[in-house]
Amino acid sequence: MNLNAEMRRLRELDWRELDIKEAGVWPWSLQLLLCLLTLGVTFFAMHWYLAAPAKAQLEQVRAEEPQLIRAFRTKAALAARLEPLREQVEALEVRMDELREMLPSGAEIPALLDNITETALDNQLTIDYIRLRGTAAQEHYVVQPFDIQVRGDYHRIAAFLAGVAGLPRIVTLHDMTLSPEGDNGHNLRLALVARTYSYRKDAEGDS
């Protein structure tokens, strides 16, 4: 009976005469309806203001998840190889230092030429000339080429080349020409371009 009476009061209510100041005497069903409406509007506003951006951010994170997983796996694999790589780098640095020690400085070039001359004389070769060329600067080192021409028999020339290759300083041999010397065919003339290298310390600072 109360519910029917309340519904009848709502139907008979003149909505134009409602005054918010008299809300306390409105039918309880109308008050309940307004409370539910206010609650719904409040919930929708909170969802729109708080939950919607969070949901959009969540969707963005979900979209980025496969890429983040791949990046994590890549970094994890790199981290697993980090210690072996460090050991390899340290070994390479030690080897690099050893090779640098084998490169003559500019002041050591004359001594290197003396060593080559002594090697030729030790193998009883006749030295026609040992002439320096102009240097050629590269990114990390300077190339110092020089021309060599010696004469002697095949075995002594071979021993001379082996001796030059075994010098403490790095010397590479290029453009070798071997031709007969005289009519007997026993003596040969060897002409070649030898190159040694000097490390550029200024290049280390540039890098």
Low-confidence stretches: none
Q: Tell me the number of helical segments per DSSP (H or I, 4 or more residues long).
A: 6
Order of helices and strands: HHHHEEEHEEH
How big a fraction of the residues is strand?
Answer: 15-25%
How many domains?
A: 2
Counting copies of identical and different chains, the oligomeric state is single chain
Query: What kind of sheet is the major sheet?
Result: 5 strands, antiparallel
Topology, number of strands: 5
Structural class of the secondary structure composition? Answer: alpha+beta
Q: Please compute the radius of gyration using only Cα atoms.
A: 47 Å
CATH topology of the largest domain: Alpha-Beta Plaits
CATH class of the largest domain: Alpha Beta
From the spread of the alpha carbons, the general shape counts as rod-shaped
Q: Considering the protein shown, what is the CATH homologous superfamily of the largest domain?
A: Ribosomal protein S6/Translation elongation factor EF1B
Report helical residue fraction. 55-70%
GO biological process, one term: type IV pilus-dependent motility
Keywords: Coiled coil, Membrane, Transmembrane, Transmembrane helix
Pfam families: PilO
Protein name: Type 4a pilus biogenesis protein PilO
Structure commentary:
Strand 2 and strand 3 form a beta hairpin. By secondary structure, the chain is α+β, with helices and mostly antiparallel strands. It has helices at 2-12, 28-80, 82-101, 109-122, 154-165, 201-206, and strands spanning 126-132, 136-137, 141-153, 171-181, 187-199. Strands 1, 2, 3, 4 and 5 form a five-stranded antiparallel β-sheet that branches. The longest helix has 53 residues, at 28-80.
